[in-house]
Amino acid sequence: MITRFWAECAMALTTMIFGLGIVWGALDFGIGWDSSGPQPGAFPFYTGMLVALASLGTIVVTTARRFAGNDLLGEIFLDAERARRVASFILPVIGFVVLSATLGMYVATVLYLVFTMRFQGGYGWLPTLATGFGAALAFYFALEKFFQIGLLKGPLERFLGF
Amino acid sequence: MDNIANLMHGFSVALTTHHILLMMAGVLLGILVGVLPGLGAPNGVSLLLPLTFSMDPVSAIILLTSLYWGALFGGSTTSILFNIPGEPSSVATTFDGHPMAKQGKATEALSFAFLSAGIGAMAGVILITVLSGWVASFALRFSSPEFFAVYFITFASFIGLGGSSPFKAIVAMGVGFALASIGMDSVSGNIRLTYDFDVLLAGVSFLIAVIGLFGIGELMLTMEEGLRFNGISAKVRARDVLKTAAKLPRYWVALLRSSAIGIWMGITPGGPTAASFMSYAMAKRSSRRGANFGKGEPEGVIAPETADHAAGSAAMLPMLALGIPGSATAAVMMGGLMIWGLNPGPTLFTDRPDFVWGLIASMYLGNVVAVIVVLATVPLFASILRIPFSIVGPVIVVVCFIGAFTVASKEFDIWLALIFGFVGYFFKKLDYPIAPLILAMVIGDKAEDAFRQSMIFSQGSLSIFWSNPLVTTLMSLGLILLLMPLIGTIFRRLRALGKTRAA
Question: Which end of chain A is less enclosed by CB atoms within 10 A, N or C?
């Protein structure tokens, strides 16, 4: 199992890579001084360095604590039960985002709500469909009609002539 | 007494039927946002912000601030009735609020919470009325180095006083600054850090970050905990509210102390969450009934609530007068001001007095409206929580992603919100503070500009930050705050050393 110690280190490593990525990106724009003051890359360069160094700091501190026998760091970060609960929430969310990008947000809203209510929540078809279509219609009228903001549309809306 | 005249003018701006209706709408939305887990004040403001782009700034800010007041109230409602804080800042309210509700004193607990919250907010707004003009005119003397020093103080206090690991606070802050610098560089006009991805040309909006970090991330955490609502039903009757109100003056010491703590934590970027915990701890230590704390002591509800709301409203002072938000929500609102074409900071007071004083007047009215509306609608909102979370949760998810899309109508933003959701989840689980990240994203450009302009003044020498008494004082203050954890550790070590020697 993944313990808190490894989770801490993995996160710190990720932020370190992010920091170094910023440093690398900043180098393209010059990190020194020119006629108009500090070059555009200077500020990101130093913030990137700061992130990388602070991440290194976290790794060092965490490792030191681990060897000093800190119990908290030996705890399990995410047990199977919790991981299952998070996954059952976030996987449909990812599905929703994919569907939004491909089929448009209204269709995605209906499909996502139907999936979570009917197949995860165990509700009957009637309340499920009512909630799904009700939510989609509510968004349609509130956003497109009232606030004049269009959402992502897909093939269905094109077919219906929106 | 310029301020009084200004304030009266502000009331004439704010006190229209249109604005009062906006306040009520804002408060109702705010309570909803505050009651629902996964949607908090910063998130609610972010979701509503894109809808206000076409409104006039005064109406827009009234709507958003009212939403904020409503969210603060909604958060305490769930704390008391369900033992689930709707907002991080109302965690401390659960300690005594929920025991009171379990003893059948739910109405009393709610009334105490709302009334003391109203008093706390008033204290904060009065402070803003008295001080904001003065702070702004003081800040008019600031030039780039001073502004950079003030930004430095803000982030130093996050690192030094934040309570989490200083390294993690630095990482969160640095990530925020880095994200802020993606896209167009306002000084040179270069496009930076896009790594040849077209979608990054326009930069990364802080609104997307807030929606992902606070919304999706928070929901993941809620799901992991396996949320269960075991609520206590409450009916709020006017007579009971009045009875509770009559008892309130007894707690004047707690009210005063908590207001002071809240105001202090709101002006310095400690924020409402820290304020409510600190106030609760102080009340517990100094109260005669300290032993009853945690078992349903009214003072244990009054102290955190007063401080929470005092901090929430006081956080507007540095935002308006200096252009530095005192909390994550204030940061989002400040981002909103910039989108509406206003420039938060001392010049706002001279350029747009109608906006500033209209806002301040609306804070008085908004809090009164909020107390009334929240007392009237508690049963309604409590019943929302009886809807199973397997329906409410997914609807919140949809609202978050649609909100993310409406920010700029870009498909990429919903992917970004998803990524930020994961970041928020892991950051929260590993105790990385999120507020500094949001603050850095909002004021990143301004801080960078201030730094670069200072460097141009001084031809690249850092000594400009110690070039006059004002900037020296500010920088030294920042350094002291930054080194606070280190000083504390050294102090403790020395004391421990002294003890071992004595023994």
Answer: N
H or E segment and range at residue B184: strand B183-184
Residue B409 forms part of a structural domain:
yes
Strands B183-184 and B191-192: antiparallel
Nearest in space to B353 (alpha carbons), one of B132, B126, B62: B132
Interface of B with A in 387-416 (CB under 8 A): 388, 390-391, 393-395, 397-398, 401-402, 405-406, 409, 411, 414-415
The 10s digit of each residue's pLDDT in B367-406 is: 999 999 988 888 788 777 778 877 888 998 999 999 999 9
The interface residues of chain A toward chain B in range 133-162, judged by CB-CB distance below 8 A, are 135, 139, 143, 147-152
Show the low-confidence residues of chain A (pLDDT under 70). 1, 162
- Check CB contact under 8 Å for A139 and B167: no
pLDDT tens figures, B97-120 = 889 988 888 888 988 999 999 999
Which residues in A lie closer than 8 A to residue B165 (C-beta atoms)? 58, 61
Nearest CA in chain B to A77: B429
User: What are the domain boundaries of chain A?
Assistant: 4-74, 80-160
Q: Is B266 a domain residue?
A: yes
The amino acid that residue B218 corresponds to is E
Q: What is the ipTM of this complex?
A: 0.94
Q: Which domain holds residue B124?
A: 2-148+204-413
Beta strand spans in A15-105 (E): 33-34, 37-38
Q: Is residue B69 part of a domain?
A: yes
Spatial distance between the Cα atoms of B323 and B136, rounded to a whole number of angstroms = 10
Domains of chain B: total: 1
Could you tell me which chain A residue has the CA closest to the CA of B175?
A51
